[in-house]
Amino acid sequence: MNKKIVVTEDMHPEKEWFKQASEIKTIEDLTKFINHLLNDYDHDYGTVCHAIGACISAAAWLGAEVQGITGFQAGFVMWDFIRNWTKQSNKCGLRLIDYDDFLYPQYEYKFDKIISSDTWQTIQEEAKKNLESSPYAAEVVKNHWRTIALGQVPFGYRVEDRI
């Protein structure tokens, strides 16, 4: 029986794992890398997350190497993964904010509290469905859904379609 490598979150093993992931060039190397990260370590609660993330990253790097994708396509891959891994039940859309863009004035528009009319319509429809299907929700939550269903846009957002 092989002894597993003990690794803890405070050791920051992910730094090396993600570096190695970006250097994967063959399916065989990918298989070895994944096997190593998943089977050769005694992970803690956090390191297992980094290990799985590095496995995913390695597969993405290899796919990009083999197929030659653009940065735009890489962004699509990221969103595809998020939607299909952690957000399968998401109905109203997602938004990711890169706070590094705060450093550049041309990106001011990214921080506007705006949602599109299509997204707003979907949110209103979901609020109405929730009111019908969740009679035991907290009253404060149901009141929030009611205001949305009635057309009040919450949290300081406004509805605007940009071209």
Mind telling me the C-alpha Rg? 22 Å
Beta-strand proportion: under 5%
Distance between the termini: 61 Å
Order of secondary-structure elements: EHHEHHEHHE
Question: Mean pLDDT score, rounded?
Answer: 95
What would your notes on this structure say?
With 163 residues, this protein is mainly alpha-helical. It has two domains: 5-69, no CATH class; 110-159, no CATH class. It is built from six helices and four strands. It has helices spanning 14-21, 27-39, 47-67, 71-85, 117-133, 139-149; strands at 5-6, 41-42, 114-115, 158-159. It has a two-stranded parallel sheet. Helix 1 (14-21) packs parallel to helix 3 and helix 5 packs across helix 6.
Keywords:
163 residues; 2 domains; two-stranded parallel ribbon; elongated
Question: Could you give the topology of this structure?
Answer:
Blueprint: E1 5-6, H1 14-21, H2 27-39, E2 41-42, H3 47-67, H4 71-85, E3 114-115, H5 117-133, H6 139-149, E4 158-159
Parallel strand pairs: 1-2, 3-4
